[in-house]
Amino acid sequence: MTAVRNPILPGCYPDPSICRVGDDFYLVTSTFEYLPGLPVFRSRDLATWEQIGHVVDRPGQLDYAGIASSGGLYAPTLRYHRGVFWVVCTLVDQADPSRGGNFVMTATDPAGPWSDPTWLGVAGIDPSLFFDDDDRAWVHGTRLVDEPEWHDQTEVWVRELDLETRQLVGPEHVLWSGAVRGAVWAEGPHLYKVDGTYYLLAAEGGTDFHHAVSVARASAVTGPYEGCRGNPVLTHRHLGRGADLVGVGHADLAQAPDGSWWAVLLGMRTYGGYHYPLGRETFLVPVTWEDGWPVFAPGEGRVPEVVDVPFAGAPAPAPSGLVPPHDGRWTAVRGLPSQVAAPRGDGWDLPLRPSTLADVDVPAFLGLRQAHRQLVVRATVRAALAPGEEVGLAIRQSERDHVRLTVRADDDGRTGRRVVATHVRGGVETVIGEAVLATPGERGASDDAVTLAVDVHDQDYRLVLDQPGSGPVTVAVADGRTLDSAAAGGFLGLWIGVVASSNGRPTTTVAHVDQVEYVPAS
Questions:
Q1: What digits encode the pLDDT tens for the residues 465-516?
Q2: How far apart are CA 30 and CA 273, in angstroms?
Q3: Strand 154-162 and strand 167-176: pairing?
Q4: What is the DSSP secondary-structure string of 83-150?
Q5: Confidence at 446, pLDDT banded by 50, 70, 90
Q6: DSSP-assigned letter for residue 183
Q7: What is the mean pLDDT of residues 303-314?
Q8: Do 112 and 222 belong together in one domain?
């Protein structure tokens, strides 16, 4: 038996969906406006997860143009049926609800390539897919009620899917509107068949503090469904906002080869108050069955810090150190990394773009999810900058909330360069620190290479300039409690990465990122 420490996927990996094929488990999570989209992970033991690809990984599969932060890809479901992997998901444009919608993609190899989307033509979010014993397939999802009894009342619907045409057919059935009367956003539904009974698992209460897992069952896939008298079967809302893990929910079930049952779900680890810069992460919970109902975390009733998994091997160490271009953790915003930069040795050639992190566009940004409370992200950058241009590091929450530590060429055309720390909060940009940058030949500076770092200690994000001959200098300290989604809104954790911009001006400048390191504290 091996102790598996939660979360099993640290950092912003929300809305996990899991399925098992033979001895292997596969898992996908939401990615919102980041690309490549919908990472696919594989594991033999639920403890060590290897990223093997992405569902959305080539130009033209989906159109992200104009989709603001916390829009994009919501709540995928991953399933397998007769040699084919299926993903059903939603593309959301919050500014234009008529755009996007629910779609399916398929692959015979979960590592890809995945098909282009087939649009299902139905509104709502959080679609899921269930394959019954008779080979019939059923799509189910969540939508707002047309004539609600309370604000944000939703309902779960189900309808058959024709596997040949990949279109919905037959009548629609409404299954559920939540276990608690007045509870908002009954969502994230998944259907299962266990010992001849159909089970509907759903989240409700919203995806923040009041998030909860509820379950209902029926003798037919189309219902009627009766709720469990123990609902919600898992929540942390009764623990208060001082709990170290909040917002647990959006669960999905899988049975292991040894017959044991497990759930993956999301939650947020708080620290420094009710704040969670790491975002919604993926956790593992054991499940048993009693009296025909699932029991989550039996004997504890909450997500454990450590889970005993009888068939698990020793957990693999978390990746640390140099992050080369081929590492699957790299993401860009509304575009693929390959559309933003070109690999070059251990780093990148990063052409500057007129767009900035504040624009709903494709910025010159390559980021990594923050997955640790204490870490250093360090990058060495070089560029012959024109006046008004900048290159460096960024901590990104959204267009309206982010921090930059960048080398800038002065607007007046002087030869001097500065390192400037900038905090954009609620759309308002403020310079929070500056440092004079040594010119080549001064204090041991041999060329125009500059090393910058974000040194994270819980909620303190120290922005550091490290120059040859003078050592590291803290330019400014940003407060992580102003950057997480509890303060800034949205659904995302923080990304840290390299950024470059000409700030609205035409440019041919190419920045060179010699290397990027991600080093958690020991």
A1: 998 777 899 999 999 999 999 999 999 999 999 999 999 999 999 999 999 9
A2: 26
A3: antiparallel
A4: TEEEEEEEEE-TT-TTSEEEEEEEESSTTSPPPPPEE-----EEEEEEE-TTS-EEEEEEEE-SS-SS
A5: very low
A6: -
A7: 93
A8: yes
Beta bridge partners of 187: 203
Residue showing tokens 């550091």: 464
Residue 270 domain flag: no
Is 238 domain-assigned?
no
**Buried/exposed 9-44: b ≥16 CB within 10 Å, e otherwise:** bbbbbbbbbbbbeeeebbbbbbbbbbbbbbbbbbbb
Residue for token digits 């993401």? 331
In the chain, the percentage of residues whose pLDDT exceeds 90 is: 90
CB distance 357 to 499 below 8 Å: yes
Final residue of a structural domain among 210, 230, 250: 230
How many domains does the chain fold into?
A: 2
Residue 195 in tokens: 């010992």
Could you list the residue range(s) of the whole structural domain that residue 405 is in? 321-520
CATH of the domain at 347: 2.60.120.200
Pair (337, 456) in one structural domain: yes
* Rounded (to 5) percent helix, strand, coil in the chain: 5, 50, 45
Do the domain assignments include residue 249? no
> Averaged over 101-114, what is the pLDDT?
98
Cα angle 198, 83, 130; round to 5: 20
User: 364 and 476: one domain?
Assistant: yes
In what helix (H) or strand (E) does residue 435 lie, and over which residues does it extend?
A: strand 428-436
Choosing from 230, 262, 287, the residue where a domain stops is 230
371-426 per-position pLDDT tens digit: 999 999 999 999 999 999 999 999 999 999 999 999 998 766 555 789 999 999 99
User: For 77-104, what is the mean pLDDT?
Assistant: 94
The catalytic residues are 15, 187
* Domain containing residue 101: CATH number: 2.115.10.20
Which residues have CB under 8 Å from 130's CB, separation 6+?
79, 137, 138, 140, 190, 191, 192, 193, 221
- The continuous run of DSSP H or E covering 486 comes out as helix 485-488
Asked whether residue 442 is domain-assigned, the answer is yes
Structure tokens at 15: 């809305």
* Torsion, CA 350, CA 351, CA 355, CA 361, rounded to 10: -70
